[in-house]
Write a structure and sequence with these properties.
Largest sheet: 8 strands, parallel
Low-confidence stretches: none
Mean pLDDT: 96
Helix content: 40-55%
Strand content: 5-15%
Shape: globular
Number of strands: 10
Structural class: alpha/beta
Distance between the termini: 38 Å
Bound molecules: flavin mononucleotide
Strand order of the largest sheet: 3-10-9-8-7-6-5-4
Length: about 350
């Protein structure tokens, strides 16, 4: 099949990616598909899972096998969560609402972005009122105004979110060449509803001669580890730090009371040439030990990838681009189908490797 011909009926996540390529305009495609700079990390994420071989085990009894995992005292039907992805109404008019419907129907945990194009309260009405749904977590970007950040935390708590995922790896956007080439801009009607018109403006700074607009302007009051300690003291919700790539940072996060970490290079969208997350995960797992739950994202496209991630030390995985690609192709049905496909593939991989429980997989 040539890349120009999209599959008639998608049977795997790559088929959805191919179909989405035809469905999205150049603007949205550059935003959703692109990575930083030469997109080496973006490509490495996918390739690294592929490069890990699995061993088959035969003739093992499989009755009673299951995909359940336990996270923060809650049993999840399976270890596949939806990563926070901003501006989903760029992919489909219903945006995060459709994603939430699919997540709830397929019992998948959903992490809602600070930069969601639908408010957290609307998402919670779908997810938190369904007793069979997976958890709803809120992804937080620390804002320059601590009072406003705290308002966001309280909003997420009040809506019913059961964990906070603090993303720490993107104080500044990576060099997004693909977006710049496409002249990416948000179309009218798509906005970050938790921020736009609500976040007080950043105090104006006058730069002295020779000062950097980035370091002395935008990043002058960028969050630091002190802000993580501050946030830890503000909420009783489990706090995960997302964007862990260095073992020393992982240990620091652990010492500051993080309840979990997301090993992530932001899907290759920040610092290009960072190693793939399949390479980083075992390093972080060694650094923090087995007691701190690790999640991982980046390039997970197959049930076998999920299995490998769990073998390498993750309790669960998140998927980003496959969600918005499926959303663009088929709305809530598309996202639900992608989740079903991935879970089916995971079950097949478990059966063929003789793995009856993901909790004891290491
Ligand atoms: C279009 C797009 C928008 C994203 N927006 C956010 C965001 O708002 N917050 C965040 O923490 N991560 C964001 N991410 C990163 C994802 O949460 C996740 O780390 C990444 O997509 C995983 O890689 P994958 O797309 O290969 O599955 C975004 C990723 C993409 C592709």
């Amino acid at each position: 099949m040539s890349p120009a011909q999209p599959p008639a009926a998608p049977v795997c996540l790559a088929d959805y990616a191919a179909l989405a390529r035809h469905r999205l305009d150049d603007n949205a495609r550059a935003y959703f598909e692109g990575g930083a700079a030469d997109e080496l990390t973006l490509a490495a994420n996918v390739q690294a899972w592929r490069d890990i071989p699995l061993s088959a085990r035969v003739l093992r009894p499989m009755a009673g096998a299951h995909t359940r995992v336990t996270l923060f005292g809650r049993t999840l039907a399976h270890p596949i969560l939806l990563a926070p992805v901003a501006y989903q109404r760029l992919a489909h008019p219903d945006g995060e609402l459709a994603t939430a419907q699919a997540a709830a129907a397929l019992q998948a945990g959903m992490v809602l972005s600070t930069q969601s194009s639908v408010p957290v309260e609307d998402i919670a009405r779908i997810v938190c009122t369904d007793p069979d749904a997976g958890p709803l977590w809120f992804q937080l970007y620390l804002q320059h105004d601590r009072g406003f950040t705290l308002d966001l935390v309280r909003r997420a708590e009040a809506a019913g979110c059961t964990a906070l995922v603090l993303t720490v790896d993107a104080p500044v956007q990576g060099a997004r060449d693909r977006e710049r080439r496409a002249g990416f801009r948000l179309p009218p009607g798509v906005r970050a509803v938790h921020l736009d018109g609500l976040l007080p403006p950043r105090p104006a700074r006058t730069l002295a001669a020779g000062q950097s607009a980035l370091f002395d302007g935008l990043l002058a009051d960028t969050p630091t580890w002190d802000d993580v300690a501050w946030l830890r003291a503000q909420t009783r919700l489990p706090l995960l730090l997302k964007g862990m790539t260095h073992p020393e940072d992982a240990r620091l996060a652990q010492s500051l009371g993080a309840d979990g970490l997301v090993v992530s290079n932001h899907g290759g969208r920040t610092l290009d040439t960072l190693p793939a997350t399949a390479v980083l995960l075992p390093r972080i797992a060694d650094a923090v030990g087995a007691s701190l739950p690790l999640l991982v994202d980046g390039g997970i496209r197959r049930g076998t990838d999920v299995l490998k991630a769990l073998v390498l030390g993750a309790r669960a995985v998140l998927i980003g681009r496959p969600v918005v690609q499926a959303l663009a192709v088929g709305g809530a049905h598309g996202v639900a189908h992608v989740l079903r496909l991935l879970r089916d593939e995971l079950e097949i991989a478990m059966a063929l490797t003789g793995c009856t429980s993901l909790d004891r997989i290491r």
